[in-house]
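About this split. The held-out portion is used to measure sequence recovery: a designer receives only the structure tokens and must propose an amino acid at every position. Recovery is the fraction of positions where the proposal matches the reference. Here is one held-out target exactly as it appears in the evaluation file.
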């Protein structure tokens, strides 16, 4: 059950009979705390926390032009993502297929639990060879954006801080 629904229910804004009926039919899990808040301030605070929580403010961005560009085999580039964690003193290499977007942005397919914060730490980079340039390139990233298609995370778009 979403935090906003729980907060509204516990604030007394939903009739007790309706809550009982919803529990009966399984719309409200039995383990959800349903007793009312002690004070109005407590209820307001809980609703405010739920409204401003990550679940409510997280935006899912869809970019069909990105998908069109990525699916064009002529635009796909093979590379290796080198993920450096200086705190844990580890280094990992992942082969990736990606495409370069306008504005020094790199679109890489979502890889499960991608360590996005590590990709923008200044130590991690993407190494690759451009088709029209025989030299090796390294892209270091300063920020990222998650791209979704519906509920599915599809790409991470990384903005390059500099390319060597």
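Reference sequence for scoring:
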């Amino acid at each position: 059950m979403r935090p906003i629904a729980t907060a509204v229910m516990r604030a007394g804004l939903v009739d007790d009979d309706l809550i009982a009926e919803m529990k009966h039919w399984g719309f409200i899990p039995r383990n959800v705390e349903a007793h009312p808040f002690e004070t109005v301030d407590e209820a307001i605070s809980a609703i405010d926390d739920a409204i401003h929580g990550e679940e409510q403010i997280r935006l899912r961005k869809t970019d069909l032009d990105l998908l069109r560009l990525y699916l064009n085999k002529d635009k796909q580039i093979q590379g290796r993502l080198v993920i450096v964690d200086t705190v844990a003193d580890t280094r990992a290499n992942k082969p990736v297929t990606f495409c370069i977007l306008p504005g020094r942005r790199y679109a890489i397919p979502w890889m499960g639990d991608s360590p996005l914060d590590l990709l923008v730490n200044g130590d991690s980079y993407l190494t690759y060879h451009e088709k029209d340039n025989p030299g090796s390139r390294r892209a270091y990233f300063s920020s990222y954006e998650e791209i979704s298609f519906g509920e599915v995370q599809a790409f991470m778009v990384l903005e390059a801080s500099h390319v060597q």
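Annotator remark: The beta strands are 77-85, 90-101, 105-109, 125-130, 133-149, 152-163.
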